[in-house]
Design goal:
Length: 58
Amino acid sequence: MEKPVLSPNFTIEDIHKLREYNYEMTKDMTDQERMDLYNKEGWEVQREIERMKIASVS
């Protein structure tokens, strides 16, 4: 399944697309695989937030 294209206004349909995409990507994963995926992605977002904070201070 391709990553969904979201509208500029982010509608309820976009939320449905994201939920369907997430389900399709994770439906055959074990609980551990899902936890590993979410942790990995979560840490990537956290690092990006930290980089943005540092950039805004400079």
